[in-house]
Write a structure and sequence with these properties.
By secondary structure, the chain is α/β, with parallel strands linked by helices. It is built from 7 helices and 8 strands. It has 2 domains: about 5-100 and about 155-230, Rossmann fold, CATH 3.40.50.10490; about 100-155, Helix Hairpins.
Length: about 280
């Protein structure tokens, strides 16, 4: 993971918290000072937490599990979508679908519905429908694509969830807590950090701040994916060598078969005729 420069965090405005009257007292350990009615976040603690979270995310990515990115606020959704696509991870940037995690089976059915509509369009059965039915199906497909299109490849529950602004995404936090899914989150001074497993104290309102923090985390995820790919190649190498050695080895000469001895004919034993006993003279 790249070294975290405090100067870069300051330039991105990561240290700006909320107004002092809106703060959450549970964020007190991460507050450095107050200036003009605004709390200033301790960036040394932020850097340490980013490093800790990045290390954990890298291990999850190396294990092959997916990490779900969540951010529905206007200034974060485009950045989160871009960063998630860079590391090939699922993301939610529209309204959080209730039961996304706790009712995952139903969500998967909705995703399969999208695939079914696509198959209809390919095999020609879609063209046999009436104009009104086509319009309804197209609207349904567009709605599903908007809300669930980014999680098509997520076939099972994610290994972790990465959230920007836990106050806004409180439903996602509650569902992840219920299923014991690790929660990584950017937490501002107006939020309660207690439900979060890996707290990153930072400004979750400024787009520059969000982009800077996520760039560090996605870099760690990329390293984890690279480690996974490398370990797979190392596992496959011995098997490939054995197969190549077998293919290159000359075939062993086959010894000629020994001629078989002719089978002895079974001799039939003829039972000797029994001599008739002489008749007694009267």
């Amino acid at each position: 993971m790249a070294n975290i420069e405090i100067k870069d965090l300051i330039d991105s405005g990561v240290h700006f918290g909320h107004l002092t009257r809106k703060w959450n007292p549970n964020m007190a350990p991460y507050v450095y000072t107050e200036r003009k009615g605004i709390h200033i976040i301790d960036l040394y603690k932020t850097a340490a937490k980013i490093d800790e979270a990045g290390s954990a995310l890298g291990k999850i990515a190396a294990s092959g599990r997916k990490i779900l990115f969540v951010a529905t606020k206007k200034q974060a959704k485009d950045i989160v979508a871009e960063k998630a696509k860079d590391v090939n991870m699922p993301f939610i940037t529209e309204r959080w679908p209730g039961g996304m995690l706790t009712n995952f089976v139903t969500i998967r059915k909705a995703v399969k519905k999208m695939a079914y509509i696509d198959r209809m369009k390919k095999d020609g059965s879609f063209e046999a429908l009436s104009k009104r039915e086509k319009l309804q199906i197209n609207r349904q497909r567009a709605k599903l694509e908007k809300n669930l299109g980014s999680i098509v490849d997520m076939t099972r529950l994610p290994g972790a969830i990465l959230i920007v602004d836990i106050k806004r995404e409180h439903i996602a936090v509650a569902e992840a807590q219920k299923l014991n899914i690790p929660i990584f989150a950017m937490v501002d001074t107006n939020s309660d950090p207690r439900p979060v497993d890996y707290v990153i104290p930072s400004n979750d309102d400024a787009s520059k701040s969000i982009e800077k923090v996520l760039s560090y985390l996605t870099a760690a995820i990329t390293e984890g994916l690279a480690d996974r790919k490398k370990s797979k190649e190392q596992e496959a190498a011995p098997a490939a060598k054995v197969a190549a050695a077998k293919a290159a080895a000359p075939a062993e000469p086959v010894a000629p078969a020994e001629p078989k001895a002719p089978a002895a004919k079974a001799t039939e034993k003829v039972a000797p005729e029994t001599a008739e006993a002489p008749k007694e003279e009267k």
